[in-house]
Amino acid sequence: MLSTGALRAHLLAARLAGPVATARETSLRSYRLFAAGDPRVTLGLVPAEGWAEADLLRLMAEKCGVSDDPGHVVGPDVIDPERTLAGLDAFADRLSCAAERRAPVLFGTGHPHRLLGFYAALADAMSAAGCRVLTPAQGRCIDITTRFGVRTCSLDYVRGVAMVREPGAREGEGDTGAHTHSPLPVRVVLAAAAEERGLLPELVVGDHGWVCGAGQLGVEAIGLADTDDPALFVGEAEGRVAVAVPVDDAVPSAFYRPLTRYVLNRAFLSR
Predict the structure, then answer these.
(1) Residue 147 pLDDT > 80
(2) Alpha-carbon torsion angle 217, 187, 211, 115, nearest 10
(3) CA angle (42, 218, 132) in 5-degree steps
(4) Does the reported pTM lie above 0.90?
(5) Cα–Cα distance measured from residue 89 to residue 99, given in angstroms and rounded to the nearest whole number
(6) Is the model more confident about 155 or about 172?
(7) 257 to 23, 91, 111, 121, 226: CA distances (angstroms)
(8) Radius of gyration, CA atoms only, the chain
(9) CB 68 within 8 Å of CB 58
């Protein structure tokens, strides 16, 4: 087993927590855009109350450990590793509960280049525990607004984890899916499952729009979020996201393997 102390040391060494690569300027810009209702950062969440930029800064200080000083505007942002560890514990507990009742689960990521391996290992473990890992709407086309305009992407699953691919990408190309914040993929997946009278997930695991989009529709959702992803933490504060784990979501994929081991052990899902 990976001890809490060993994982804390890894979080800091890999810059998953502590001073992270996400710039303070980037985080503050996201808070401003969220307060203005910009869909690029609300990620499908419709806040139940108005969140001013100052409110968001206080929330992110509480949830992530970033500085609550509005005068601190440059440099790397900071994640408190103790908050990451607490988040991973809560994340694992939700997985364990779902595994105990053999609940159908959906995995999806907007960070396939970084986080596919993390989610795929969890999907394998949940499947081995008797849970149905759902894959509705395979190959479905989705029009997603990007900075380059509207792109028609396709929905794909790799090792049980949903992602989108940009035009021209071929299915089965490993982890070469597109980076996206959009909630449209999870909406398409849930709608397809309902239309096909198939199983609906009782738990959605992922990041970005996968978590916020599912939580907004009333599905239990848990995921990882960086300091520039306030929507997941607002969703958690308002009760629509079950768990948001503060962690840098864009380090090399191998750095997430100790987190995988820790979560699987905590959730009693290790083989």
Answers:
(1) no
(2) 170
(3) 110
(4) yes
(5) 15
(6) 155
(7) 24, 16, 15, 9, 18
(8) 17
(9) yes
